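User: Hi! I have a protein structure encoded as tokens and I'd like to know what sequence might fold into it. I'm fairly new to this, so please keep things simple.
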């Protein structure tokens, strides 16, 4: 290490799954570290998205840390898919169990982070004006954490309450007797709408693009199932951790094009009945061949027609884009909720909302009166939170300028020109294309091992090299282009945010990524410049 004395060895931004485990690893390395967290508590995405119905779409026994055997044995999950509330309880437990809270500064929003080239350290300024210096800055600010509030004309003129699923009121909201408008039919809209319908007098859903959603079939977790997995939890994690999504899905190595129709239908029926995202693993070519894709897409559309009684509503709810191109959702009674007399759909049919007026929402000249608008309009995904931190690297270059034509990283972990800045599940890492928790553990372990290496070698600076970054960006783009994931306007491409450059933001394929990271580390952090 050089002689510059910093307040801390490392500053971690965010106290969600990524930040908490990062802090634990930094403690174990004997480094002086602190988390700065904008929220008033731990949980990250799960803290902010506390809307009714918020639930994980990976099974709870897998959407949890594996790094500590005692932790994974002692924690008892109550449902197949954990609610946001239960996940928050779990993360608070982790925080206390590993004595992390002492090094978390809450209500601490980063407004700038500037790299000092001469001393190789970062100065972080918080909204309060407080500054902190550290050798390393580690962003664990999350990929779905920067809420997207669309700039619809007249939005601020609305006379009623305005909520966003990604920034839900801490004390909840009482919808009883209210006329509620829900804008957005991605995962959040699909989860929250049936819950709102249980309380509200009237629910009107404004849909721009119909999503594919599969029944979650959530249920209390059978203690026998939990015990069986815990009998060899480590083995279970290792087995499934090497699968494409790092989660237990039965990948069927059969083409939808060659599977006889009766066999294909039986397989899809079985997966539909079981519930969960493994529906998408019924065939091996759904995301590779658009004809194969139609087999699953048409099956889902049939299910919608069979569930939704009003044929016009069923037709409007039937997705037109390829299956899986936008994130496939999991739901609890989403389609059936449209059969209730107080629930209706306004199909924007690729168009938009004209404007918002004090009394409601105007579409095609018609005003839909409401008391509450719930924006379920998603996130500035993958890059939003990073770009909101005012990060400046070498030569005073801002991260926003560096990424003006799209995010560029090496392994999703670093970006050239910003030494000693690390990202947990950064752009071009597997992140949302994987079960997020193992993806986070992979990145945290890589970063922590790297910091341990620098410490042992007496080095104080690490920076991704331009050639390595170029090659990685090209590789991630080429993998995505070889699939059907780039065929629609998804947030994977940044296409949900007006003006955002269209670049594929995730590496598809977790096992290959893990192998690459392992190899890079084994070669003394090949592709990084170390000083
Ligand atoms: P998503 O999946 O980005 O969904 C946002 C929804 O909001 C989607 O239906 C959008 O339509 C819609 N939207 C966005 N802007 C507008 C405007 N201006 N007017 C009308 N409708 C709009 O976010 P979620 O929060 O549901 O889920 C994000 C992830 O969190 C999810 O995939 C899980 O991984 C967890 P569009 O499709 O863009 O036409």
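Assistant: Happy to help. Inverse folding works backwards from shape to sequence: for each of the 531 positions I chose a residue that suits the local structure. Here it is:
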């Amino acid at each position: 290490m050089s002689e510059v004395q910093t307040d801390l060895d490392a500053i971690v931004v965010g106290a969600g799954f990524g930040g908490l485990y990062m802090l634990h690893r930094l403690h174990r390395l004997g480094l002086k570290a602190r988390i700065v967290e904008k929220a008033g508590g731990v949980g990250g995405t799960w803290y902010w998205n506390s809307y009714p119905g918020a639930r994980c779409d990976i099974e709870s026994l897998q959407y949890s840390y594996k790094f500590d055997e005692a932790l994974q044995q002692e924690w008892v999950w109550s449902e197949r898919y954990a609610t946001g509330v239960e996940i928050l309880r779990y993360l608070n437990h982790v925080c206390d169990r590993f004595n992390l809270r002492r090094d978390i500064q809450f209500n601490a929003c980063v407004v700038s982070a500037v790299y000092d080239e001469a001393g190789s350290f970062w100065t972080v300024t918080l909204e309060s004006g407080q500054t902190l210096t550290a050798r390393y800055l580690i962003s664990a600010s999350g990929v779905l954490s920067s809420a997207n509030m669309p700039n619809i004309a007249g939005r601020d003129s609305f006379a009623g309450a305005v909520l966003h699923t990604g920034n839900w009121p801490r004390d909840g909201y009482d919808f009883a007797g209210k006329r509620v408008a829900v804008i957005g039919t991605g995962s959040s809209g699909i989860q929250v709408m049936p819950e709102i319908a249980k309380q509200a007098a009237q629910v009107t859903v404004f849909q721009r693009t119909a999503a594919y959603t599969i029944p979650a079939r959530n249920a209390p977790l059978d203690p026998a199932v939990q015990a069986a997995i815990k009998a060899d939890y480590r083995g279970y994690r290792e087995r499934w951790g090497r699968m494409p999504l790092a989660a237990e899905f039965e990948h069927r190595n059969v083409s939808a094009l060659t599977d006889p129709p009766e066999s294909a239908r039986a397989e899809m029926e079985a997966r539909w009945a079981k519930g969960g995202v493994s529906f998408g693993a019924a065939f091996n070519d759904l995301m590779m061949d658009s004809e194969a894709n139609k087999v699953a897409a048409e099956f889902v559309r049939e299910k919608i027609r069979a569930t939704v009684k009003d044929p016009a509503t069923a037709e409007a709810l039937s997705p037109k884009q390829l299956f899986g191109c936008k994130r496939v959702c999991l739901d609890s009674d989403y389609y059936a909720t449209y059969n209730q007399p107080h629930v209706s759909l306004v199909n924007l049919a690729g168009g938009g909302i004209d404007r918002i007026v004090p009394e409601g929402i105007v579409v095609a000249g018609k005003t839909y009166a409401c008391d509450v608008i719930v924006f379920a309009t998603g996130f500035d995904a993958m890059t939003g939170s990073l770009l909101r931190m005012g990060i400046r690297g070498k030569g005073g270059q801002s991260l926003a300028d560096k990424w003006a034509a799209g995010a560029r990283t090496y392994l999703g972990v670093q970006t050239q020109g910003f030494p000693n800045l690390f990202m947990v599940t950064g752009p071009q890492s597997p992140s949302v294309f994987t079960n997020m928790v193992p993806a986070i553990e992979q990145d945290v372990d890589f970063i922590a091992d790297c910091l341990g290496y620098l410490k042992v070698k007496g080095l104080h600076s690490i920076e991704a090299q331009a050639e390595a970054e170029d090659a990685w960006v090209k590789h991630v783009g080429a993998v995505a282009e070889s699939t059907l994931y780039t065929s629609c306007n998804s947030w994977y491409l940044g296409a949900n945010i007006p003006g955002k450059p269209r670049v594929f933001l995730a590496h598809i394929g977790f096992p290959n990524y893990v192998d690459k990271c392992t190899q890079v580390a084994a070669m003394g952090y090949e592709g990084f410049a170390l000083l």
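A useful reference point when you look it over: The pocket of NA7 is lined by residues 144, 150, 152, 165, 183-189, 206, 208-209, 327, 348, 352-353, 376-378, 432, 491, 496 (CB under 6 Å). Feel free to ask if any position seems puzzling.
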